Fold:
Amino acid sequence: MRKESKIDVQILSIAVVLVLLITLPILVNPEKGTAILSAILSFITKDLGSFYLWACIGIFGFLFWLAFSKYGKIRFGKEKPEFSTFSWLALIFTAGIGSGIMYWGIIEWAFYYDSPPFGLTPKSLEAADFAATYGMFHWGFSAWAIYCVPSIPIAYALYIKKYNSVRLSTACRGILGDKADGIIGKIIDVCFMFGLIGGIGTSLALGSPLMAEGLSHWFGIEKTMGLNIAIVIGLTVFVCICLYFGLSKGMKFLSDWNLYLYFGIAIFIFIAGPTVFILSRTTESVGLLFQNFLRMSLYTDSVGGSGFSEKWTIFYWGWWFSYAPFTGMFAARISKGRTIRGLIFGQLIGGTLGCWAAFAIFGNTGMFMQLNNIVPVLDILNSQGAPAASIAILEALPFGSIVAFLYIAVAIIFLVTTVNSGAFTLADVASKNLRDGEEPVRWYRLFWAILLTSIAIVLMYGKALDALQTLTIITALPLVFIMILMIFSFMKWLKEDEHLINSYMVEDTKETDEIELPSNKQIVGK
Ligand code: NM2
Structure:
């Protein structure tokens, strides 16, 4: 009997053709290609910027309501969760967070301190206050709401509607009906793939210079484009090895270790660094963030025209949106047996605290060094760039070289886990005929990893890194609409499925069960 094909050739070819359409012109004529993308970008951030801001806060409000509504008690399937809560959170966190957190966590404050929001005077006391707070905002609970929202309709489709597909189009079925299988559905799925390629490209483009800086600093290797590319190739090999071993073995191991090392280094810097300053600065920042949450969420500087929100908040929301369907699919796949409320709080609280650790500890350490004239962070930043400034901060700590080395190693692992789960999810979406819980075929997972990283290499080679980051925001735009569609679709399902839902409700007393840990069981029954 002929084996049925597991590859969805239609989706695969549309995605590949679209990627070629975008990357080839940039490669052939980087200047012109980048200029066109910049024009699109400025239209999106300036003319549609407010839309991104409303979308983020609206989604946050929606999740807040959902978690506390009676629907919060819906459990995804009747089985117990497959992963321990730690591994589950580790997988969600490390899939959705890449080397970006190591890149920005330590240095983002310096940009805000130098060019603050709200018309504040650069390097003033208020600028320092908001500098420490803004990073926590851009990596905080409203941002995590963007990640969380797609996971719910997808998990609902998977475990309650039993659709056996993590595709976005499936999660829009409530409204689209059978159109989800037609051209509209395909467009939706391709938008997702496209967004993810832009988002991961941005992470790779930021992560590799940080590693290149480390290599050139310690081993005297010259910082060239060739070095960046060699790093991405090295990462690709690493990713392929992990992907080969599949979701449960390779990734769970790496995610757990990713988190141990991340928190290990954070605890070390917390103790060895300016502990009291970190504590008091963070306390103040949390207060400032809550006090100014709405102001920061909806800040556009329409009169001042500083471009602060276009450059930061809107760029960030775009970046979160571009990753969101992927993290949603990934989270849904590993959340069998969790409740809607558990999924929302797990991501919003767990994710936020995980990100805040970086901004509170690494970022405030950097700020302490600048304010106390230990390291001239701003000068280094302006003359040699962010990676050099970050390494200078780390090297000023006790056992500085080792800390800096480990810091970069953690950045690499973060990047690998992200590309890993990204390639896995892309392969999943561009597959068909997978049986319940079956993983996409091995070579196909590797193919997606290589495609993802080669796009970054191609664009780096074409010196179109800016274009790559621009691409993130552009590719995120359709996703914002798709996510809104998903929310409406989900609400429609909830209304229609009154009876079905009742059999999936957990009682309050039983809710603690969901934190049971059946030890490292395979995610997929094979
Ligand atoms: N987000 C969380 O490199 C990364 O950390 C990827 C970035 C979207 C800002 C995610």
